[in-house]
Amino acid sequence: MRVVMKSRYVIFTFVLLITGFLIALSFQLDADFGKNSFVEQDSQWQTEDDLRNDVLLEQETTRELTEQLREIQSEIKQIEETVSDQEQLYFNLVEDMDKLRMVTGEIGVKGEGILVTLTDAEYIPGEDNPNSYIVHEQHIQQVVDELLVSGAEALAINGHRVTHRTYIQCIGPVIEIDGEIAFAPFEVKAIGDRDTLDEALNLTGGVKDQLVNENIQVRIEKKTDIQIDPYFSESGEDT
């Protein structure tokens, strides 16, 4: 009987040991799982925090680069405006220089315009003074002045370029232009808007009418292509 009880006690003890071991193992597994789960969760939070910081850093870098880009664009715009102003200034200077060279007769000019021919009238014997039937310097000067006022860009008298220093004077039956002798008929070439120049000379009571009243024969022709050479050069051809 004691042997049986002892055997039961041993078996019961063994069962308790096994049960205790299983319970301890279960607690250990739960503890390890909880620890591992916490570590994994903490690692995930750390990763998300690192990514968030990276995104914030990239956004800050983007803002700085955007601001730098705006500053560069502003500088480029200022440079472009400065260059544009300089180009316009250079263009204006070149244009003014060309106009000045044109006025002084340093360069040849070609373009549309008109040709005015002044011819002595046929003298009638026994009538007034013969000088009343020939072209004088004032007649040519009238034509030149009217053409200049009407926008003529360049002028020539019998091929001689007219400049801001040109002088015209009579010497007997001929006319001297800047020291050169010119004979009738006198051809005055003018480059400019041919319609405007033609209308200016043909105004009622204007230059043409005044010259005709003073016995000067006047012929005005509109030309599509007139060439006026530089000062003191040979005259060009016109059509």
TrEMBL record:
InterPro entries: DUF881 (IPR010273). It comes from the Bacteria. Residues 62-89 form a coiled coil. Keywords: Coiled coil. Belongs to the UPF0749 family. This is DUF881 domain-containing protein.
